[in-house]
Design brief:
The chain folds into 2 domains: 1-72, ATPase, nucleotide binding domain (Nucleotidyltransferase, domain 5, 2-Layer Sandwich); 82-226, 2-Layer Sandwich (Nucleotidyltransferase, domain 5). It is 35% helix and 26% strand. It has 7 helices and 11 strands. The strands form 2 sheets. The protein has a 6-stranded mixed beta sheet with strand order 6-9-8-7-10-11, sandwiched between helices. Strands 3-2-1-4-5 form a 5-stranded mixed beta sheet, sandwiched between helices. Strand 4, helix 2 and strand 5 form a beta-alpha-beta unit. Helix 1 runs parallel beside helix 2 (59-68), helix 3 (93-105) packs across helix 7 and helix 4 packs across helix 5 (172-196). 37% of the residues are buried.
């Protein structure tokens, strides 16, 4: 059994794998340290790997590593993909793990991977398992929060109760909601259209906490894989 741990900006996710099969999953918020440690203590595993956006000195990271003896994922480790990137030391570990997860599910395929979280990342992985680069943009809530905090009157909005078949808003709330959601959808469509000219039979894979919302705002068929980072960490753990 392998334990994979993804410490993101807002949530901590854990998954237990029996070979390549995800058999158990837990998702927690920061502040739930006792629940996280209890979840770990209640399960049996042979190896563990951890990816974190936090520094190793972060108390939660230290506690989880101490409890699990997890390997701290690093880009220098052996990987099932190649990184054609000038600054691999700055490449987010979650992005690397997502790509490793994607090739385990869709080998020998050109992949466009969209991760919709605090930021939206757009990554291209070719059929030879070479990462060719990607872009980073603000995520849904970051955009809404920026418009709210950097203006005097614009409210803070969310995506709930929005009619997703609308293109143009008919209130300020809708204008803010759709401005962001339609905008990110247009970003996805633009990248996919342009990249498809170079990468044949390009498969669009979307992951992250906001993936299901944004999936409805792209005109292309997107495969939703909610556990892509955890799947990738399991792949990496078996590879190193």
């Amino acid at each position: 059994m392998n334990l994979t741990i993804d410490i993101g900006n807002t949530k901590i996710k854990l998954a237990l794998f029996d070979r390549h099969n995800l058999v158990d999953f837990g998702s927690f918020l920061y502040g739930d340290e006792s629940k996280i440690l209890q979840w770990i203590q209640d399960r049996t595993f042979d190896k563990a790997i951890l990816s974190s956006v936090q520094m190793e000195e972060h108390p939660l990271v230290r506690s989880i590593i101490h409890e699990t003896h997890a390997i701290r994922f690093d880009y220098k480790q052996s990987l099932p993909i190649q990184l054609n990137y000038r600054t691999p030391q700055t490449l987010g570990h979650d992005r690397i793990a997502s790509m490793c997860g994607a090739i385990s599910l869709y080998p020998n395929t050109n992949l466009f991977i969209v991760s919709a979280g605090s930021c939206v990342t757009y990554d291209i992985l070719d059929a030879n398992s070479v990462f060719q680069g990607g872009n980073i943009a603000p995520g849904m809530y970051m955009r809404w929060r920026a418009m709210h905090e950097f203006t005097g009157k614009l409210p803070m909005v969310h995506h709930q109760d929005l009619e997703i078949n609308k293109l143009i808003g008919q209130s300020t709330d809708e204008a803010l909601q759709l401005g962001v959601l339609q905008g990110i959808g247009a970003e996805i469509d633009h990248y996919y259209s342009e990249l498809s000219l170079k990468y044949t039979e390009l498969k669009l894979v979307i992951t992250g906490g906001d993936a299901m919302v944004l999936k409805t705002f792209t005109k292309f068929a997107a495969i939703h894989q909610p556990h892509l980072v955890l799947i990738g960490l399991n792949q990496i753990l078996d590879y190193i």
